[in-house]
Design a protein that fits this description.
Length: 210
């Protein structure tokens, strides 16, 4: 083979290898679908039935809080309670969407945000208001609404904290990084809001006593 011919063959081989390498790299860098990513994550950090149950039930738990918060604007709540209610509603709507997507990515049933009547067996989930309590809150107005809203939402938040504690106490649960972070965030956020609402409720009680 003459030198020019060898150079042509060598150049062709170099180009061919470069194209093959680029092709492999593009395949490796191609974004995975959400389901594929979820399966890859689950291979590293397996999720359990307790994780699925927590995500599913917390959707229903959050949904009831959103209904409660939605009444603040129409029931004569004070500006401070309306601000709190809006914050709760916005945060929990985002978390519901996040939990629904986590479930869908793992091919698990994802409850709708309107299913705030979900229970665990024959009893309500921790902190959930009964139908009687919901009716009582719905019938209240102005200062009475503020008082009931704060008291009931403290009860509701305490229940969410209990659900997180129960998850963490379940063997093998919350090893999935996403579940662990979400549950930890719910625990911190709702504990912080409980303290804020307790102060607001105390202020209302002092004002009412004057």
């Amino acid at each position: 083979m003459t030198p020019p011919r060898r150079q042509q063959v060598t150049a062709a081989l170099v180009v061919g290898l470069a194209v093959a390498a680029c092709s492999r790299a593009s395949r490796q860098l191609a974004p995975l679908s959400p389901v594929a990513r979820a399966r890859a994550d689950s291979a590293r950090h397996p999720y359990t039935a307790a994780d699925v149950s927590f995500m599913s039930h917390m959707i229903g738990h959050h949904a009831q809080a959103i209904v409660m918060a939605g009444w603040a604007a129409s029931h004569g709540a004070s500006p401070s309670v309306r601000t709190l209610a809006a914050r709760i509603s916005n945060a929990q709507r985002d978390e519901i969407a996040f939990m629904q997507q986590w479930l869908r990515n793992r091919l698990q049933p994802a409850p709708g945000a309107g299913e705030h009547g979900m229970d665990m067996g024959d009893t309500l989930m921790p902190g959930m208001l009964t139908e009687t309590q919901m009716q009582q809150l719905d019938q209240a107005r102005s200062a009475e609404f503020d008082r009931l809203f704060l008291g009931f939402m403290i009860q509701h938040h305490h229940g969410a904290v209990v659900m997180v504690q129960n998850l963490f106490a379940t063997y093998g649960a919350a090893q999935d990084e996403i579940v662990f972070k979400l549950a930890s965030d719910i625990n911190v956020d709702q504990t912080t809001e409980i303290a804020r609402m307790e102060r607001m409720l105390l202020t209302l009680q002092i004002q009412g006593a004057l």
